[in-house]
Amino acid sequence: MWFGENMADSAKDILxxxxxxxxxxxxxxxxxxxxxxxxQVIKALESAKKRIEKEHAEKTRVEExxxxxxxxxxxxxxxxxxxxxRGSVAGPLTVCAxxxxxxxxxxxxxxxxxxxxxxxxxxxxQIQELLQQLALLILLLKELMKLAWHSV
Length: 152
Fold this sequence. Notes:
Number of helices: 5
Order of helices and strands: HHHEEHEH
Shape: elongated
Distance between the termini: 74 Å
Structural class: alpha+beta
């Protein structure tokens, strides 16, 4: 049976530390508590490992997106576009386009519908701080209907 010095740490404290620790600290905590037999601690260690793996996958996804942007731009600008609204079904359609610098990378960029409201707000602040160009378009239902008829 394992009776290490770390048993003095409550499972609740370990869980709290693992839940928001940065990657380097997570690895230290995993090493420290890897032999702890408590089920809560074992689950917390597994969750922390999964969180780090998920963060790595997200980092790789965004870095690949930036690499692709650089490849496409051939030194020029690339415009990122996102829209919100339901178009002719429910009213106005809002479209925003931005040009961002190659550096620094803004991690977490994604389709706005795939983000939580909190994450959208955080990213919006980062984008506003770094954007090079911005365009915003709001199309009202009447305008959308005209466009729809012209495209048929």
